[in-house]
Design goal:
The structure is a single chain. The protein is α+β, with helices and mostly antiparallel strands. It has two domains: 242 residues, PAS domain (Beta-Lactamase); 51 residues, no CATH class. Helices cover 43% and strands 13% of the residues. The protein is built from twelve helices and seven strands. α3 packs antiparallel against α4. The two termini are 45 Å apart. The N terminus is likely disordered.
């Protein structure tokens, strides 16, 4: 599973996407379906939209000019004030028609985006349980964000990082949770993924979280290729990759004879006390094979 997930992440070919008509036989199936490779950035208007609007425009021009022609030939029988002032009705109706057209298309796209994110398995379905187990087993911090920077899904690792329950994350803005800000950070990977239509990988070190993160943000698209959200992968980044010098491991002074340890204040203490006070741990004692042969030669012989 780990190798399969790393392959998906490094090639950035599989953002969380909709489940397909065929149910996968493995636990990663819903996640692979959710992480489908559709990164091409398309225009706001598709070719079909342009053709429909062009036909609509031509029909309206012909119709209004025909009505205007009737008004000019028999102005006494037609008293409509709009038709008596030239091209005003043409402009007015075209504006109203065009506005209605774009409004309908916008509503359709919004519905398509909601449907795309809605294809994530329902919370109580058997497939949701399978998807959730796969989602939560990932060691990285994984979440699905909609186009408004709101979290739609979050795995267990992310919940533990932020010390919150899943229901406390859903619907919250990612920049508020990750960075404690009222707006996205400069160079936000989610915003960049939306702009370029391709996965974005970058390193972020934010004082709010206190750890450097390597983030890969992969765009989700709806059925028409429009941006509907992103899949957000984050993992704690080792110091060498962040360009920061890793802190040197501290030296612990230990007596060469009795093995007592000296603390920062110059006091010597037993190693058991040092572990308990400094590392919040306790030692349990046993005896190795070499020592037990030396101490109890009658019981432990070669």
């Amino acid at each position: 599973m780990a190798a399969q997930f790393n392959t998906m992440q490094h090639h950035a070919k599989s953002p969380h996407g909709c489940r397909s008509g065929k149910k996968s036989g493995t636990s990663a199936g819903p996640l692979r379906n959710l992480l489908q490779s559709r990164w091409r950035m398309r225009s706001v208007l598709t070719h079909c939209d342009l053709i429909i609007f062009s036909v609509f425009f031509l029909v309206m021009v012909i119709l209004i000019e025909f009505l205007h022609l009737l008004a000019s030939t028999d102005s006494d029988t037609i008293s409509n004030p709009l038709l008596s002032i030239g091209l005003t009705p043409t402009v007015l109706i075209l504006l109203l028609g065009g506005g209605a057209f774009f409004l309908i298309k916008s509503l359709a796209r919004a519905g398509s985006r909601r449907q795309t994110l809605g294809h994530l398995p329902a919370d109580r379905s058997p497939e949701a349980d399978e998807w959730r187990r796969t989602f939560d087993i990932l060691p990285d911090f994984v979440s699905v964000h909609d186009q408004d920077f709101k979290i739609v899904k979050a795995n267990q690792a992310l919940c533990e990082l932020l010390d919150k329950k899943p229901e406390e994350l859903i619907g919250r803005h990612c920049y508020r949770l990750f960075h404690d800000r009222d707006s996205p950070i400069e160079g936000c990977p989610h915003a960049k993924a939306q702009d370029i239509g391709h996965p974005v990988t970058m390193e972020i070190h934010d004082s709010h979280l206190g750890v450097p993160l390597l983030i890969t943000c992969s765009p989700l698209t709806d059925g028409q290729g429009n941006f509907a959200g992103s899949v957000h992968f984050a993992r704690i980044q080792p110091s060498p990759r962040t360009g920061r010098e890793a802190p040197a491991a501290p030296f612990i002074p230990i007596c060469a004879s009795c093995k007592d340890i000296r603390d920062d204040h110059g006091n010597w203490m037993k190693i058991e006390d040092y572990v308990h006070l400094r590392l919040n741990g306790r030692l349990t004692h046993s005896i190795c094979q070499k020592c037990r042969k030396r101490i109890y030669p009658r019981f432990f012989q070669d």
